[in-house]
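Hi V.,

You were right to ask for the full record rather than a summary. Here it is.
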Amino acid sequence: MAEIIQKDGTWTFDGETVRIVPGSDRGVSLLRRTLGEIAVPLHALAGISFEPGKRSGRLRLRLRNGADPLLQITRGKLDDASDPYRLVVEGSRSGVAEYFVDEVRNALLLDQVDDGPAERYLLTGPALPITASAGDGTVAFDGERIRLSWNWKAEESKSSGGERLLELAEVEAVEWLPSAGLENGYLRFVSAKSGNRTPPKYDPYAIDLWGFRKDPLMALVAAAVVARLPHPYAPAPADPPPEPGTPVPTAADAAARAAAAVDAAPQAAALTSAAGDTAAAPSGDDHDALLRRLRELGELHQAGILTDEEFSTAKKAVLRRM
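Predicted structure:
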């Protein structure tokens, strides 16, 4: 068991899970306090590091790509204060932080955890129901429906239409971007209802964000929705199994199809005269087509799909037609 307790929060590791509890200090961000305790399974981790400093250091967890819906939607754009996988460590506790790092790294090594992209979310994301108010509106999500309503700061073109409802099944994508400098941020839900893209300021399915204190909470709503959408790295659905009794294609079948393709290729067969008794020589185009067939046969032979005997037979058939 490894544990480090700081004003910024408490991290514990029991060999299988890193538990992160945000601190109660006033400097802890609203996003982290709202998100609450996070349980990160070992197989969701890609690494851990400690960055020492003169007065304080930084303990950081690195998660596998696609493991956490919050990191998936924010794409590295969360500021350090809002990052739940960062812990400020006092200089006097550097030794404890380094011990914590060693314990997690040893567990990753012993379990041979894959640090590549995850094919499903390994963290559940923010708890439901969830509601956040910022910018020009409020978003509420209960796991099935998204409700957007507007405050007095919203443009009339948005507020005049009243609140908007979206079923989760209607959502095609979620976009989140924090404000930066003079550029506003936004939370947008893309669906067939949203139609043509308009600036978030006028989009009735987007919240316009201006960089105020509660803005990061919109990232939590986005993560809660994303966690229930198809995973971006999920493998493609497998082909359905063949019907009972259906023969399974073999390499020999592939070779037979290749030979048949040579025999049936347009203009590959010898041309006959109108009387049907004289074979005509192939034209220049026919000759080029046959050369391409030879190259294809060679590639099939090198790939091991055609045996030496099959390749020789098919090759002779093409050469006779040249």
